[in-house]
Design goal:
Oligomer: single chain
Number of strands: 6
Helix content: 25-40%
Radius of gyration: 12 Å
Low-confidence stretches: none
CATH topology: Transcription Regulator spoIIAA
CATH superfamily: STAS domain
Distance between the termini: 22 Å
Strand order of the largest sheet: 1-2-3-4-5-6
Length: about 110
Amino acid sequence: MAGVLDAGLTIQVSRETEAVRVTLAGTLDSETAAQVRSQLKPMLRDSPGTLLIDLDGVSYVDRPGVDALVHAARVAHRLGGRVALVHCPDQVHRMLAALGRDRLFTYQ
């Protein structure tokens, strides 16, 4: 499943053996964060195992974008799952660490 969200963010979803992989490409910011949350919500609810969020194609992330990732991790933990960030840019990891939220995730 793939879709283009407003302001140039593309999301692709693929099911793997023990996880769901969500690949984001483009800008994860205040324009797209709410849409990312709404796209991730049913995946977290329906597949409460591991959600892999691949950020390799993300060109820009701001605080609301990071907040969307944190929200996904909190929902996953509440449902007994986890979120792993794949190809996490240094900028995102630094923002998560500064917010004290980097431990909500595993990294690949």
